[in-house]
Amino acid sequence: MAVAAGSLEMRSVTKRYRVDGKPLIALDDVSLAVAPGEFVVIVGASGCGKSTLLRLFAGLDADHDGIILHDGAAVAGPSLQRGLVFQEPRLFPWLSVERNVLAALRNSGLDKVARHEAVASHIALVGLQGFERAYPHQLSGGMAQRAAIARGLVNRPDVLLLDEPLGALDALTRAHLQDELQRIWARERTTMVLVTHDVDEAVYLGDRVVVMSPQPGRIREIFPVTLPRPRDRADEALLRLRAHVLQTLAGTSRPRGLALNRAA
């Protein structure tokens, strides 16, 4: 049976490291399915394995037990169909915004005209028109992350993986880019998997919030977020969900039978 573009799945994945000669289990028997076009947010304390999970989905590490699938096919390495954005923009300092985004199309197979059209449309998508020829040192932190997101999307990947891309920004810029990220997702409907330690960000952006527990990294609970978009940060239902996620992170139990939507 055909699998729709943009699906991701982990089946019983375990990832081990050795630290100072001792074994460390970063992920322990993790299973997670992400539907095409879904916005899934993974939240947890430092050391819970959330970034490791994202790296495995990206195909950056093949040394693991279990199965990882993208559109039903085994993930064997990095792919242009899985874009990746890190906490730091990681722009080439010697290239302009335009040429940084263009660099991601090096192996795309597009001709010159198509490449430049794709770059222009994605710079517009993230709201950086007028800054095409600016260099990274001339950009604010938020603008640099916009450029990184444009670079991650320019190949039109099925999936965009985001590893705490807003974590280093000030509160106002972070809130603004959360809105922008939600707008981009609503327009493009690219499958997105976001890793964050910020519970407010998780419940504001996600269709589902995956809460992980550390040492070893396991999925503790998954919260569906059924509130309509665009969301109001002050919505009482959203604030209740935030409290439940925080309780779970702190090791307390969610009250039995409590609904997590506007009808609660």
- How would you classify the helix and strand content by structural class? alpha/beta
CATH class of the domain at 15-81 and 195-255: Alpha Beta
Our measurement of the CA-to-CA distance between the termini, rounded to an integer number of angstroms, reads 38 Å
* CATH homology superfamily of the domain at 15-81 and 195-255: P-loop containing nucleotide triphosphate hydrolases
What features would you describe in this structure?
The chain has helices spanning 50-58, 97-103, 112-125, 141-153, 171-188, 199-205, 236-249, and strands at 8-19, 22-34, 39-43, 65-70, 73-74, 82-85, 159-163, 191-196, 208-213, 218-224. The protein is α/β, with parallel strands linked by helices and 264 residues long. The protein has a domain at 15-81 and 195-255: Rossmann fold, CATH 3.40.50. The strands form 2 sheets. Strands 6-7-8-3-9-10 form a 6-stranded mixed β-sheet, with helices on both faces. Helix 2 runs parallel beside helix 4, helix 3 (112-125) packs across helix 4 and helix 6 crosses helix 7 (236-249). The longest helix is centred in the C-terminal third of the chain and has 18 residues, at 171-188. It is globular and about 50 Å long. The chain starts with 7 loop residues before the first strand and ends in a 15-residue tail after the last helix.
Write a short abstract of this structure.
The protein is an alpha/beta fold and 264 residues long. Helix content is 31%, strand content 25%. The protein has 7 helices and 10 strands.
